[in-house]
Amino acid sequence: MAKRYFIAVIWLITPFAFALPEDRDQPIEITADNAVINEKQSQAEYSGAVVVTQGTLKLEGDVVNLKTNEAGEVETFVSKGQPARFENLRRKTDKEPVKGRASTIYYSYDSDRVVLTGNAMITSEESEFSGPEITYDLNTGEVTASGNRSKRVNMTMQPKKK
């Protein structure tokens, strides 16, 4: 019976999308040690070395929670870990995916933004951003990092190779 609910949730979350347009057409695959699905609350919790993939996106964590809207479309994914990780290829011409890690990674479907909190770090091409909180826009590639006097934002840019 649990397998049927797991399959039902997979069908519910297929509209989940990321940066490459063809990623939208790819199935979402979730592997975990455990899954608890609550259809009445339109949410699921996966635990134990969780890996979520769709096209070029990969999200990993110790625990991943997802919430769907009334139409069965994913609203949010929240990944927690030590650290939680994500990677995403924005353009076909990118040599390496954008990679991120943090204690918590929050993905909002509506805004196509990933918010990383708790020792957050994003690596894009040869640049590295770190700080207490980083917001990454999957469509534009814009990175916004915030900190304070005691927990500063850091950025390292490597010179372009000729």
Summarize model confidence as the mean pLDDT.
81
Shape: globular
Q: What's the CATH superfamily, by name?
A: Lipopolysaccharide (LPS) transport protein A like domain
Might you state the CATH topology name?
lipopolysaccharide transport protein A fold
Distance between the ends: 59 Å
Q: What is the CATH top level name?
A: Mainly Beta
Write the CATH architecture name: Sandwich
What is the β-strand count? 10
Biggest beta sheet attributes: 10 strands, antiparallel
Brief descriptors of the model:
lipopolysaccharide transport protein A fold, 10 strands, ten-stranded antiparallel β-sheet, 162 residues, disordered N terminus, 7% helix, mainly beta, 1 helix
What would your notes on this structure say?
With 162 residues, this protein is mainly beta. The protein has one domain (2-157): lipopolysaccharide transport protein A fold (Sandwich), CATH 2.60.450. The protein is built from one helix and ten strands. The chain has one helix at 2-12, and strands at 29-31, 34-38, 43-54, 57-68, 74-88, 98-108, 113-124, 127-137, 143-146, 154-157. Strands 1, 2, 3, 4, 5, 6, 7, 8, 9 and 10 form a ten-stranded antiparallel β-sheet that branches. A hairpin with a 2-residue loop joins strand 3 and strand 4 (57-68). The chain is globular, with a radius of gyration of 16 Å. The termini are far apart.
